[in-house]
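Renewal narrative, Specific Aim 1. Our central claim is that a sequence can be written position by position from structural information alone. The example that follows is taken directly from our test logs and has not been curated for this report. It begins with the structure tokens describing the chain, in the order in which they were read.
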């Protein structure tokens, strides 16, 4: 029978500092932990854990036990004082302690269980050989830098499957099986299968059926309202995990303004007198108290002057200069009429013009610095398709006068915000949509966000460099019915 060995290590982003007087400082993604009078066993254990997965049972070989007692899942026998001290330190560092499972062959871990929260609980237990088990319906399996990554937004850990046996066992759990069935179908040693399964269950990526044979998450009404994709996006966007966009070299500092394509003509836009508008605009309270329902699209014709004023008041660049996040590097930034974290302003606006005096039908990119429209696509079929998805998304039976498509240049965000880039971008879309809505109301127009089933149609029609620039929202511009 193959023997499995529990291994311990610290996450790659942890730093262990041991001073000459024996004091210990561990710097992790969650904060800095100080242990002024650490036990020698603690110092040696963490020193080795910082280097990679280690059997803590081996660390104790130079310490003579005062009394023998099982500790940390029965794998260690230490002096009571040293064991208690190490237990407390590992508990405090729980969000940065990696639990791995290896074999007695020195070939490294079968799998590693990496925490994604500050204070997770990891308690592997033996799973009955006949009890059905299954991957959580929220789990996903994808390529990882060190193997296959297995994670679930409902779990406190992500798992890296480093060797084929671990990948094989995890893959068989796409449908419910017992440990006994896995052993029979894979031919892998029962002890190895049992160890792998116990770690996957303890990590939260695999579910164990109850006495009634059902899985708890299938009957959970709160989980039932979430799709796997939505819950995964929510969880990962709220936790900036290692290995995300911030760890990708070469992003640099993307420019404030998207370079023009130079393929089509440019049209300078009208610039309104804002002092005059301040005298005649309705109050903010009056604007906010209007009905926010999506308007019935009319057959009225916008003017180029109206589109120019709308974009000038809602989305132009007022100024450019340096900015930075707290304790972060400086980056080029701009000031515009709507909110953006660190003034990054990664959003771009494209205008699909249907009915407008002074502008031909076509799809244009808005240059917020030069305040002009650059034609990017004059193909009538592409324009009609964009207007079709706006009509359907707005629940109307005719095309709007114009459609504003909002895109995001993701390198602009990821270079500063890393794994939080996309979630922050969606917050920026909301800020922009509200600004455009208020500007349109003040001008006597109607602007409203519409949900569209874009597929790849938007990317093609706008000639986007996917995935460096992606569509993130739409807003129709028309007249009140």
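The sequence written for that structure reads:
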């Amino acid at each position: 029978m193959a023997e499995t060995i529990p291994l311990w290590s610290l996450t790659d982003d942890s730093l262990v500092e041991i001073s000459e007087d024996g004091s210990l400082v561990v710097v992790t993604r969650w904060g800095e932990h100080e242990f002024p009078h650490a036990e020698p066993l603690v110092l040696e254990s963490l020193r080795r854990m910082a280097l990679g997965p280690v059997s803590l049972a081996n660390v104790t070989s130079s310490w003579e036990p005062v009394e023998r007692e099982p500790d940390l899942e029965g794998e260690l026998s230490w002096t009571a004082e040293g064991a208690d001290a190490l237990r407390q330190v590992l508990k405090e560092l729980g969000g940065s302690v990696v639990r791995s499972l290896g074999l007695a062959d020195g070939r490294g871990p079968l799998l590693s269980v990496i925490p994604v929260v500050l204070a997770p609980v990891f308690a592997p237990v033996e799973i009955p050989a006949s009890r059905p088990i299954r991957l959580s319906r929220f789990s996903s399996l994808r390529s990882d830098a060190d193997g296959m990554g297995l994670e679930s937004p409902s779990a406190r850990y992500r798992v890296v499957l480093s060797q084929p046996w671990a990948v094989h066992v995890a893959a068989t759990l796409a449908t419910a099986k017992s440990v006994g069935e896995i052993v029979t179908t894979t031919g892998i040693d029962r002890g190895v299968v049992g160890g792998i399964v116990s770690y996957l269950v303890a990590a939260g990526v695999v579910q164990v059926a109850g006495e009634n044979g059902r899985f708890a998450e299938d009957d959970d009404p709160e989980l039932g309202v979430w799709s796997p994709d939505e819950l995964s996006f929510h969880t990962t966007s709220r936790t900036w995990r290692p290995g995300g966009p911030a760890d990708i070299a070469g992003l640099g500092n993307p420019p404030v303004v998207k370079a023009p394509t130079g393929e089509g003509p440019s049209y300078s836009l009208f610039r309104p007198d804002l002092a005059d508008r301040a005298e005649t605009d309705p109050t903010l309270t009056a604007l906010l108290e209007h009905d926010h329902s999506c308007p019935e699209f009319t057959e009225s014709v916008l003017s180029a002057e109206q589109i120019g004023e709308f974009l000038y008041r809602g989305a132009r660049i007022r100024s450019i200069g340096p900015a930075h996040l707290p304790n972060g590097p400086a980056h080029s930034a701009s000031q515009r009429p709507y909110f953006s974290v660190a003034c990054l302003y990664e959003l771009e606006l494209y205008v699909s013009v249907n009915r407008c005096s002074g502008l031909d039908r076509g799809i244009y990119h808005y240059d917020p610095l030069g305040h002009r429209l650059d034609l990017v696509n004059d193909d009538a079929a592409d324009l009609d398709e964009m207007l079709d998805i706006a009509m359907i998304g707005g629940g109307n039976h005719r095309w709007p006068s114009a459609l504003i498509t909002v895109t995001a240049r993701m390198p602009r965000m990821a270079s500063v915000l890393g794994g939080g880039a996309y979630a922050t971008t969606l917050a920026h879309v909301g800020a922009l949509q509200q600004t455009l809505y208020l500007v349109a109301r003040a001008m006597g127009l109607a602007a409203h966000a519409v949900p569209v089933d874009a597929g790849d149609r938007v990317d093609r029609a706008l000639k986007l460099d996917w995935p460096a620039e992606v569509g993130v929202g739409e807003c129709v511009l028309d007249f009140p019915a």
